């Protein structure tokens, strides 16, 4: 890998998988063979994706470093750059700059039970860590995944959800804000759903990602269930733009989410006023 992570490397889109009406997974491979071999990252890190002539944006890596030769990004079309990403087809080029930011704690939580809580497009940043944990299953104890979306159609990674549900070493809980005639699962928002299923905090670390208001309410629910602040970990990557702490968009107090994060424990966030506000 280049010594300068701030220089973009050219990559090619090798697969596009629609997830919802406005969200797709993009699989990309570096054009340079040495880059494919040398690019290393940790679960929770992100990159800056560049669309030539349009601009760039910070996107979390949804694949795991245990998966070699490619990177995956789950992108919702919400702005100029992300819409341009959605215009990409297999064979198209883009720039990848990184990896950037800190990561989910993988070594520190070995031997512990792990609880993953995702909302909507917040599941992809957790997916990198989930894949890492499942590929190193003997290092971790129980794995619980709680995932919610606005509707059944807004659930991402539907096939993987089925696979996780079938695994004997994973407990999966899925809820939607509003069901339809085909939905047979739980209906309700994630925070009260957490209180309902009442997952024990003993020897457990909780990881969460989703819209800021969801994260705030999830943390409140976890605290009601006696989870310690130090055992609640979140990522605030959706607040980022430039990825290098220069544009100021992600500045909160004396922190820049892209430079000092995007991963924080809630114990750390208590020292950053406004960190969980929209």
Describe, in short, the structure shown.
This protein is of the alpha/beta class. It is 23% helix and 29% strand.
Q: Strand order, biggest sheet?
A: 4-3-6-1-2-5
Number of helices: 8
Q: Specify the biggest β-sheet.
A: 6 strands, antiparallel
In helices, the fraction of residues equals 10-25%
- Please state the oligomeric state of the protein chains shown: single chain
The portion of residues forming beta strands comes to 25-35%
The tally of strands reads: 14
Radius of gyration: 18 Å
- Secondary structure category: alpha/beta
Q: Looking at CATH, which topology of the largest domain would you report?
A: Rossmann fold
Number of domains: 2
Annotate the secondary structure layout.
Elements: E1 9-18, E2 23-30, H1 33-38, E3 46-51, E4 55-60, E5 71-76, H2 80-86, E6 93-100, E7 113-119, H3 123-135, E8 143-149, H4 158-166, E9 171-176, H5 190-197, E10 204-209, H6 212-224, E11 232-235, E12 251-252, E13 255-256, H7 257-260, E14 263-265, H8 266-269
Parallel strand pairs: 7-8, 7-10, 8-9, 10-11
Antiparallel strand pairs: 1-2, 1-6, 2-5, 3-4, 3-6, 11-14, 12-13
